[in-house]
Design goal:
- This protein has one helix at 3-11, and strands at 16-19, 28-32, 36-42, 51-56, 59-66, 83-90, 101-105, 108-114.
- It is elongated, with a radius of gyration of 19 Å.
- The longest helix has 9 residues, at 3-11.
- It starts with a helix and ends in a 12-residue tail after the last strand.
- The relative contact order is 0.25.
- Helix content is 7%, strand content 40%.
């Protein structure tokens, strides 16, 4: 194994993005910084209140509904998804749920999941 492969393997974090049945799944990036896990979802044409972001047992769930244009008489090309969507992201480690932030700007939903700080417990000497 090369040095580059070793470094990459050591720094990689296992994250699982679950895709669900008939609902569509917007493109989703998951990456990590020194202080947080970052989730970016490309979902143009929505408003902040049309999303639901929840965290339970290290599963971040993002759901919502993107309204479509009026129903066309015929289709020539249809590549944009409308309707209900859902993405479940299994996080690789615990995060500080109380400091979770979600912002929607320019067609992207940004979710910041700060890492839990490790608390040290003093050991008393007897």
């Amino acid at each position: 194994m090369s040095e580059l492969e070793t470094v990459f393997t050591r720094r990689s974090v296992r994250v699982t993005v679950h895709r669900t049945g008939p609902l569509w799944n917007p493109p989703t990036d998951v990456f990590e910084t020194e202080d947080a896990l970052m989730i970016v979802v490309e979902i143009a044409g929505m408003h902040g209140g049309e999303f639901n972001v929840s965290l339970q047992n290290r599963i971040l769930t993002i759901t919502g509904m993107r309204q479509g244009a009026e129903r066309p008489n015929s289709f020539h090309q249809m590549e944009i998804h409308y309707g209900e969507f859902r993405t479940d992201i299994e996080l690789p480690h615990a995060v500080d749920a109380k400091r979770l932030q979600a912002d929607y700007n320019d067609g992207f939903l940004h979710v910041v999941l700060p890492k839990k700080s490790r608390e040290t417990i003093p050991v008393n000497r007897k």
